[in-house]
Amino acid sequence: MTQDYFLDQLTLGKSVSYTDQYAPQLLQPVPRSLNRQELNIVESQPFHGEDIWNGYELSWLNAKGKPCVAIMQVNVPFDSTHLIESKSFKLYLNSFNQSRFNSIEHVRQTLSNDLSQCADGQVDVFLYTPAQFNAFQVAALPGLCIDDIDIDVNQYQPDGNLLLCDRNSVQSETLVSHLLKSNCLITHQPDWASIAIRYHGPAIDHAALLRYLISFRQHNEFHEQCVERIFCEIQQRCQPDKLSVYARYTRRGGLDINPFRSNFETCWPNYRLARQ
Fold first, then answer.
1. pTM of the model as a whole
2. Known catalytic residues?
3. By C-alpha distance, which of 154, 168, 187 is closest to 253?
């Protein structure tokens, strides 16, 4: 099955009817292998990690018909067979709006079961009630921001050749940029993100890294795929011993997607940035 054929079957970019009654069949999976074929990492990935989703528009009815709301956190493992297509996820969440559930745990378990089946991997779901909303404080990605470097830019499609490093100098650092922008693979709508790159190895040239990240500006690819591409190209070009890449994308339709990939550490906290 080709990528173009598969993506044409998705509801993304097409007019659809909304339903407010529980409809798990709305969820649509996208094989992770489609993008990983190009990166030559289908059989073995050089990283671990997860995709952290935050949902701010989750609502349902309790057994008496009274509306309930919650903030949702969903963790999809990197090694699930599929990623979850975001528009179908939004449509699926809308189907909870007029559906009755016996308890918040019933809602959480339903979400976990349906999303795990879609992703073909164990998906963990956490729900936070309004009494817990203050836990979602705005934070900042740790690290040195490289955005103020004065550079000329003329490349707006990703090119790993832009990356430079000094193999005679070993460095351990975390670099942050808020200038990452890519576009949806199908609709070409802009996807905005902040990104943190932590590594130990040959010193990465900061200006070159910034040019590389900016080069995604007209690139069409899903969030998860962009982060895996960034990880693989840094690994290939600079060969750090340790590498983590964490992107925090701004929300659309009440959902933000935050892929984390690393070859040495567990996932960072679920930071909520100012733009999220």
1. 0.93
2. 184, 191
3. 187
